[in-house]
Specification:
Helix content: over 70%
Protein name: HTH cro/C1-type domain-containing protein
Order of helices and strands: HHHH
Largest sheet: none
Number of helices: 4
Strand content: under 5%
Organism: Monoglobus pectinilyticus
Number of domains: 1
Structural class: mainly alpha
Amino acid sequence: MVVNEIKIRLLRLEKRQVDLLDAIRKRGFKNLQPSTLSQYISGTITGPQAETVIKIIYEILESWEEEKSTYVR
């Protein structure tokens, strides 16, 4: 389930949804609102834009996870 995976990964990274929102905004979604992001993550809102944002979320999470694993070494 998407919602659990994203939230679990954020917890493991010690990040919050607001951190994710900031990173998404830096990638071109400057007007994305916190409530809309939450609805995308929960699957309440679907469609092309939601799919694009979810794809960006996974890219950001992967990047953060790589950074964190680099620091652990």
